[in-house]
Amino acid sequence: MLPRTMDAIGVALIALSLLVIVLVIWQGISYRAVERGEARSLRPDLMLLPGGSFRMGSPADEPNRFDDEGPQHEVTVSPFFLCRTEITQENWEAVMGDNPTNCDSGCDKLPVHSISWLDAVDFMNRLTELENTAYASDKQMSLCYEISGEEASWDRSCTGYRLPTEAEWEYAARAGTVTAYSFGNDASELDEYAWHAGNSDNRVHEVGAKRANPWGLYDMHGNVYEWVWDWYGPYGAQAATNPTGPEEGSSRVLRGGSFVVGPRLLRSARRGRYQPVGRDLSWVSGVRCARAGARASLIN
């Protein structure tokens, strides 16, 4: 009887080992990574935004506008996924294995910053690869970017994570509104929606702590600037569908303003720019992840 008992114990141990493996895989499916003995989230929640058309840029009579916000032009975007908040330091550290912000404590829910545009692109590819490890073979996402040195190209047919385009970003920030901000034209209401120079105490704050815009997205005004895909360039007057910006340039676009700027630079149409590989000013620059909506099958 003893050998059979030992065999039964052996089978039980094997079954237990398989169960542990399954649980580890399931942990991956729920988008968690283990870092220093604790679970760490890979990304914020995704929201599926409806496709639609809007007037991109600011009208000529909008107070405090900049010339490069015009001419206003009709833009149509397809449905796409966008993260509800900016990528946090917890997310970044789980995916990239480091924290460029030099934060010592209480950092997890703060937005990552001190990243270049190229850093942000690299993050999207690595996030895609990590989540693919939890997918069945028929649910694999394709990488969006091919990175070579300081250059990156975008496969428009990709199903993985990517930066939003400038048009997608403004469409999401406006959330159906046509005013200077997603909540209206009164800058005195900014404190309810944004961390900015007037209320931030010159530091970043936890994501999602202010009121969301009408589509449930947080920090589209203020906290940290957000990189988008596009090269910076002048707008044209013609209507466009899913525009992706100029084919080349010297600066990439930043959107949303940050905790160190005032109301003029926090408007929905405001455009910032910076070199894609530089970090001299990018301590105020963060990122928010996107995915194609029509082609992507989402697993939560």
Written overview of the protein:
It is globular, with a radius of gyration of 22 Å. The protein has helices spanning 2-29, 89-96, 117-132, 166-174, 190-193; strands spanning 32-35, 38-41, 46-49, 52-56, 73-77, 80-83, 145-148, 151-154, 225-231, 240-241, 252-255, 271-274, 285-286, 290-292. A four-stranded mixed beta sheet has the order 12-11-9-13, with helices on one face. Strands 3-6-14 form a three-stranded antiparallel beta sheet, with no helix packed on it. A three-stranded mixed beta sheet has the order 4-5-10, covered by helices on one side. With 300 residues, the chain is of the alpha+beta class.
User: What is the structural class?
Assistant: alpha+beta
Report the top-level CATH class of the largest domain.
Alpha Beta
Helical amount: 10-25%
Beta-strand content bin: 15-25%
Could you describe the largest sheet, including whether it forms a barrel?
A: 4 strands, mixed
Strand and helix layout:
Layout: H1 2-29, E1 32-35, E2 38-41, E3 46-49, E4 52-56, E5 73-77, E6 80-83, H2 89-96, H3 117-132, E7 145-148, E8 151-154, H4 166-174, H5 190-193, E9 225-231, E10 240-241, E11 252-255, E12 271-274, E13 285-286, E14 290-292
What structural keywords apply?
single chain; 300 residues; alpha+beta; paralog of FGE (formylglycine-generating enzyme); 2 domains; four-stranded mixed sheet; three-stranded antiparallel sheet
Short structural description:
The chain is an alpha+beta fold. The protein has helices at 2-29, 89-96, 117-132, 166-174, 190-193; strands at 32-35, 38-41, 46-49, 52-56, 73-77, 80-83, 145-148, 151-154, 225-231, 240-241, 252-255, 271-274, 285-286, 290-292.
